[in-house]
Write a structure and sequence with these properties.
By secondary structure, the protein is mostly helical. The chain contains ten helices and no strands. The longest helix has 52 residues.
Length: 267
């Protein structure tokens, strides 16, 4: 037979909590009251004796403790071998600053081309305003009959500006129509939907692929560890700690009765 596993240091707090629970049970309190030693000093004495004999007490629940250690080791091994995100996926996925830089690239690289629409809008307006001013001044000078050469020059400049305004206005309208058609035909930039994790699904697949360790499998391992721990603590309480406290209380009661009889015999 293999030797029972000793109580590990990380499990001693659980042993102390189980001991505290046992000392607060009605059975132990009543036993202390019958022996006339229900004070805090006697409870501390029992507690100290149980802590000294913790290894011997723990052997009463050795099978449950061994099963608990196996479940805990299996859960730790499953967590350590769980596959993380692949390096290729991590390198392929752009970070938030990189993604924002990629999205901002069209705006930064098309800065030069953004000047053309502005010129297409401003040129007809400036040319039209110049044409109106030149034609108005030329017409006034011709009506007055003075400076006919200047009036003719102003009228010629006004007609030229009007022609430029008409041509640039037509070119701007064509550019606007082409831009609208191009934006309508281009597909919208859709953001990729994040992949849902297996444990977020309300009904995960009952048979995951071999070699994989999805998160809901880890939760199942954690539940198995908790169940094994509860079974060990119950066995430790009922088969180890409580019988030890009963024996110590009986021994203390026997010693007190023997001492009382010896005192009566001496008197």
């Amino acid at each position: 037979m293999t030797a029972s596993p000793g109580l590990q240091a990380e499990d001693r707090p659980d042993f102390e909590r189980a001991l505290h629970q046992a000392l607060r049970t009605a059975e132990i309190r009543e036993a202390l009251g019958r022996s006339g030693s229900s004070g805090g000093t006697d409870i501390q004495r029992l507690r100290s004796q149980a802590l000294v004999e913790s290894e011997a007490i723990a052997t009463a629940a050795a099978p449950e403790y061994a099963a608990y250690l196996r479940q805990r080791a299996a859960a730790a091994a499953a967590a350590s071998t769980a596959p993380g995100p692949s390096a290729a996926a991590v390198s392929a996925a752009p970070t938030a600053p990189a993604a924002s830089a990629v999205r901002a690239t069209p705006f930064t690289t098309t800065g030069g081309r953004g000047l053309l629409p502005a010129l297409a809008v401003l040129t007809p307006a400036l040319a039209g305003a110049s044409a109106a001013a030149f034609l108005l001044l030329g017409g006034l000078l011709r009506l007055s009959g003075s400076q006919r050469e200047t009036a003719d020059a102003l009228l010629t400049a006004g007609l030229t500006s009007a022609t430029i305004a008409a041509v640039t206005l037509a070119a701007g309208m064509v550019c606007l129509v082409v831009t609208a058609v191009r934006h309508r035909s281009s597909p919208p930039d859709r953001q990729p939907r994040p992949h849902r994790r297996p444990h977020a699904h309300p009904h995960p697949h009952p048979h995951p692929p071999s070699g994989s360790h999805p998160p809901y499998a880890w939760r199942r391992d954690d539940a198995a560890v908790a169940t094994a721990r509860d079974a060990w603590l119950r066995a430790l309480l009922h088969r180890g700690i409580l019988p030890f406290l009963r024996d110590r209380l009986k021994m203390s009661h026997t010693l007190s009765r023997t001492s009382q009889k010896s005192e009566k015999g001496s008197t």
